[in-house]
Amino acid sequence: MAPSLASGVSTSHFGVVSSLPAPGFEGFEKRLEVWFSPASSATCRGDGGNGTWSSGLSGLRLLSREELDALVEVAECTIVSQLSNDQFDAYVLSESSLFVYPFKLVMKTCGTTALLRAVPYLLKCAARLGLQSCGCKYTRGTFMFPAAQPYPHGSFQQEVEFLDRHFGSLGAGGRWFVLGDHGVFPRWHVYHAESDVSAAIESEQEKRGFLKPREPTFTLEMCMTELNRQLAKQFWKGPHFVNAKTVTERAGIADLLPGSEIDDFMFDPCGYSMNGVEGGACSTVHITPEDGFSYASFEMMGYDRGTDVGAIVHRVLQCFKPGRFSVAITCDGLPGVAGVGRWGTSLPLFEGYACDSSNRKEFMSGGRIAFHTFRCVSSEEVEASQVSGCSFVDPLPLFSDLKTRVIRGSKPRYSHRLETTDAEQVPIEKAAPLVECGSGWWLVEDAARN
Questions:
Q1: How many CB atoms lie within 10 A of CB 201?
Q2: Quick check: is 29 catalytic?
Q3: What secondary structure letter does DSSP report for 72?
Q4: pTM for this one?
Q5: Which of 106, 109, 328, 357 lies at a 20 to 30 A Cα distance from 78?
Q6: Strand partners, 107
Q7: pLDDT reading at 250 higher than 90
Q8: pLDDT of 411 above 80
Q9: H helix runs in 6-135, sequence order
Q10: Is 19 a catalytic residue?
Q11: Pick the catalytic residue: 37, 55, 273, 326?
């Protein structure tokens, strides 16, 4: 979403007033995902949106509209539209989106919102419903205007410390890491905490009707900058503007996931947001079209393992043709979970783009994340790279064959730099234990290339 973004202008949308410092609006979202379980046995994961939990109007979906309004108000945004089905509720916000499942809540906000400030109120509301948090995941890219962010988003260290106060006691404690190479924009900041789960407890919960058979939950997050100027113009309310639906269709957004029911919204004088609902799966698009700090994001969550991820990424790129973009793919699941299907296969070549960093990481709970950044390249650059032996076109590994080993003091063997997480990327004392293989540089190599 993007409001009027003139330098130093104070804008108001649906009762939310914010001072937007120069030079522009912060497109990169903060994303919080919190899982809940009945407080009497809070050792399980939350609803994955694809059958992990029983659906219906239960759990967090029992929160009143007044409570949800208060929740987003704490984060300094408002609800502008709603779309629901029998499995979850999707809300378009004045700054991004909110998704409410029976036992999971996902909230993402852009601009200078204070997303994490909503955590205490969320936990309070959940407790009233007899629910207790059993897991949390927080992700965001590198802010374009970090100095404009309010507490606790002034730095990743602040965010980690804040999250630890509320989720650090879960399981083995909160874990954080930053994916991406130094000097490559953006980098991907991740915080993860989750309760310990035993097969015996999970089996008992299934008997009691709390759980359905477990399936992994897949999430794709794309962040795009330097949008094609002509394509970005579609997201301004010009003299020929009709409605948000027309924009959705003309921009090709309606074709990204054709089976989705879409709730779209255009802002004044520019900016666009949409939520898509398809069974237990959701998708969302947010666009800030201003030249100089243009940004678009696409997310899909809860789609099955047969989804052709590469084809969807390609369709998204055709909608915006960004100069730079990143792809983060996450599989939330436990050891022994069913195969990851096409989500775990390699990403194909995206014509006109080169991958300038590639990273993979495994959560202690068994989940996995792969993160890649890309930049637009000319045909001359591609030809030169092939002559020099540095390939821009190798398929990018995801995580179906994740294998780690420590490599100290050696250079990457491929043009794609694999895992570059080190203990000094963010000045938090807690960083060192997060690199399970020890401090220093390490690479994640896929088995096929060893």
A1: 14
A2: yes
A3: H
A4: 0.79
A5: 328
A6: 32, 98
A7: yes
A8: no
A9: 65-74, 119-128
A10: no
A11: 273
Does the annotation mark 110 as catalytic? yes
Residue boundaries of the structural domains of the chain: 25-449
> Choosing from 13, 153, 286, 416, which is the catalytic residue?
286
User: Given strand 353-362, what is the order of strands in its sheet?
Assistant: 261-266, 272-278, 281-288, 295-301, 217-225, 324-332, 368-376, 353-362
User: Which residue out of 96, 195, 357, 365 is catalytically annotated?
Assistant: 96
CA distance 61 to 75: 19
* Whether the Cβ atoms of residue 265 and residue 325 lie closer than 8 Å to each other: no
Question: By the 8 A CB rule, do 12 and 104 touch?
Answer: no
pLDDT in the model for residue 443: 29
Catalytically annotated residue among 13, 18, 26, 260 = 26
| Position 26 confidence tier, pLDDT thresholds 50, 70, 90 | confident
Per the rule left: phi > 0, alpha: psi between -120 and 50, beta: everything else, 341 is: left
Peptide bond preceding 186 in cis form (omega within 30 of 0): yes
CB count within 10 Å of CB 438 equals 11
- Among candidate residues 44, 110, 282, 355, the one labeled active-site is 110
Residue 324 backbone phi and psi in degrees, to 5: -140, 150
Hey, what are 68's tokens? Answer: 């949800």
User: What single letter denotes the amino acid at residue 335?
Assistant: P
pLDDT tier at 387 (50, 70, 90 boundaries)?
A: very low
The angle that helices 119-128 and 156-167 make with each other, rounded to 10 degrees, is: 20
Q: Is 161 a catalytic residue?
A: no
CA angle 391, 396, 401 (to 5 degrees): 130
Q: Give the Cα separation of 309 and 345 in Å (integer).
A: 9
Mind giving me the DSSP string for 297-339? EEEEES--TT--HHHHHHHHHHHH--SEEEEEEEEE--TTPPP
